[in-house]
Amino acid sequence: MDRIVITIHPAPSDEGLLSVADAMQQVLDSMKLFEDAQSSLGNPRESFAWKLERASANSPFTVVAIAQPLNPTVDISSAVRRVKAEVSEGLRNLITHGSTSPWMTQDSLSAARSLFARNRNGIGETAIDFEDGEVLSIDRTQAAAGIQAIAGINVMVLDQDLPARQSFGEIEGVMVAAGRYRNRAAIQIKNELYGFVWCALSKSLIARFGSEHSMAEIWEGKTVGVQGRLSYANGGKLTFIDALDLREISAAPRVDLSSTLDPNFTAGMDPHEYLEKLHEGQIG
Which residues does 70 contact at the CB level (< 8 Å), separation at least 6? Predict the structure, then answer.
């Protein structure tokens, strides 16, 4: 099945209650690891997103995420299995042997460090069920080992030592130019992390949007997502994208917070009292 189950147990000293911030952030950091593994292994045809299928309201806090294909006609089962295997093996090797997996970056280790740290202060155990009978349980002992392992890794050197590589994925940026690159029709985007990157256009993109000059008229100055084969130089610098698809990324509309606030939401109760009654089931 294409699911993962993350269960977060409170520390015994916390009388069975989890901090809301700890529980939510623990899930986010766990999912960050799955997303990083997917980015390094993904194939554009097998792209998928983790969607929330259900979540518990009580302790232990449990979240079930299901992988859903971006293209509903594509079977993503094998891709999901590869990602789950990479995360499972990567975390186990980090905790037990202090070694990193090829897909782990500075950001990956930062998320893992935060995940381990909460398991030593506020969270008693984090269990990740990869299905097929494979469960990784991170208790305080394993969390301490993970923190010690990361402390022994020169994180700055980690990314500098990355070899030249290719992967499939999507990069966002503002389109700033259109022209020729390596004798191919191409556009140039400016990405916040990598700076200026040339993106060669596939024949299908040219058929859809026309020449590079037509692309300039349509996309210049707009934020776009470029999906395709990403080429990285030594050290992790993105140097080139062989673009297979292109989409405009629209800015999220502004939300008027004053129109959404409800001053009577808690019926006069302070936040602590309201959450306590909600947890006990006294509020419908």
Answer: 47, 48, 49
**3-state class (DSSP) for residue 99:** coil
Q: How many CB atoms lie within 10 A of CB 183?
A: 7
Domains of the chain plus CATH, in order, are 3-160 (no CATH), 165-248 (2.40.50.140)
Residue 173 token pair: 């940026």
For residue 21, how many other CB atoms are within 10 A of its CB?
10
Residues of the chain with pLDDT under 70: 1, 14-16, 41-45, 154-163, 211-213, 235, 252, 255, 257, 259-260, 263, 265, 284
* 191's tokens: 């990405």
> pLDDT for 118-144, tens place per residue?
999 889 999 999 987 889 999 999 999
d(CA 231, CA 171): 12
Q: Give every CB contact of residue 133 below 8 A, 6+ residues apart in sequence.
A: none
**Model pLDDT, residue 242:** 92
Give the three-class secondary structure for 157. Answer: helix
Torsional class of 272: left (φ above 0), alpha (ψ -120 to 50), beta (otherwise): alpha
* Centroid of chain to Cα 173: 18
- pLDDT of 224-280, one tens digit each? 999 999 998 776 778 899 999 988 887 767 767 676 677 676 777 777 777 777 777
Which phi and psi angles does 36 have, rounded to 5°?
Answer: -65, -40
Asked whether 201 and 186 are in contact (CB, 8 A), the reply is yes
Helical (H) or strand (E) element with 258: helix 257-260
